Nicotianamine synthase (Lithocarpus litseifolius), 317 residues
Amino acid sequence: MGCQDEPLVQKVWELYEQISSLENLKPSKDVNMIFTKLVLTCMPPNPIDVTKLCKKVQEMRSKLIRLCGEAEGHLESHYSTILGSYENPLDHLNIFPYYSNYLKLSLLEFNILSQHYTHVPSKIAFVGSGPLPLSSIVLASKHLTNTTFHNYDIDPLANSQAIGLFSSDSDLSQRMFFHTNDIMNVTNDLKDYEVVFLAALVGMDKEDKVKVVDHLAKYMAPGALLMLRSAHGARAFLYPVLDPCDLRGFEFLSVFHPTDEVVNSVVIARKYAMPTHSLEKGLGPMILPNKCAEIQAFNHFNQGNMIEELAIEDKLS
Ligand SMILES: C[S@@+](CC[C@H](N)C(=O)[O-])C[C@H]1O[C@@H](n2cnc3c(N)ncnc32)[C@H](O)[C@@H]1O
């Protein structure tokens, strides 16, 4: 499979060259047009497996993911500034071009969470909330209306922009908290959260993202849920991909690959109830996710979207 001979790879490569030659990635007609083309080019069905691409294309992919992340940050900051100028910012969220995507993504995440968590979480952490924390806003205002959200961002400017959006909202201003910190420096506080969400742009490649997941596995409470965003098919040109075997210390529960305009795949996993070293002695449930090769995934379809769960054979008994 593909180096630059694949038509899709050629198209993405052309767009990458246009993006990397832009003067800057701040929102403008040209920037918006090129990124819209890129997102449409990567829309399913594009069953490309990016792990099988040649080295040159892999290098392009990791640069493109970083460029997309930079552009997303500028886009959020731009609209957060505009929203912050309104008297009631949260009444005008629909000025953000991808607001409807967040409505769909947050509904999807809430539904998947509800399948694995029987009661309403009281405290949630959102890691990588950004200058426009739409995931937390939509989840808190439309789905988890009694839950407190602790938003973490490494960028103080992102948090100061985000905080400015809530002052006029009597409900959310009491339930949204912001912490400026690299999540890798947050330790004991992580055990307070029943659910931790990990934004797609925390960890810009698999290696960095796995480091964050390992850190969360070390400090999250046993049994707590991790919801993270990945990508599938050609959308892996836009975001890093995490596989079940990357979730060391967690029991992989499921991954959902949307086929509509929601770009991110949604992964849910549960922190093992006991330290993984005791699991390896066969004292706990079956396979550890890091034994990838021994896990067979099976897919079943739900309204055209693909849900992957794992048929885990008992290899330790
Ligand atoms: C652009 S936002 C996207 C999230 C989006 N606003 C949402 O609601 O889903 C991603 C944010 O992750 C933050 N980030 C990246 N690495 C991080 C880290 N190690 N710790 C905390 N925040 C991080 C970036 O500063 C950025 O603001």
Observations:
- Confidence is low (pLDDT under 50) at residues 282-291, 293-304, 310-317.
- The first helix runs from residue 7 to 20.
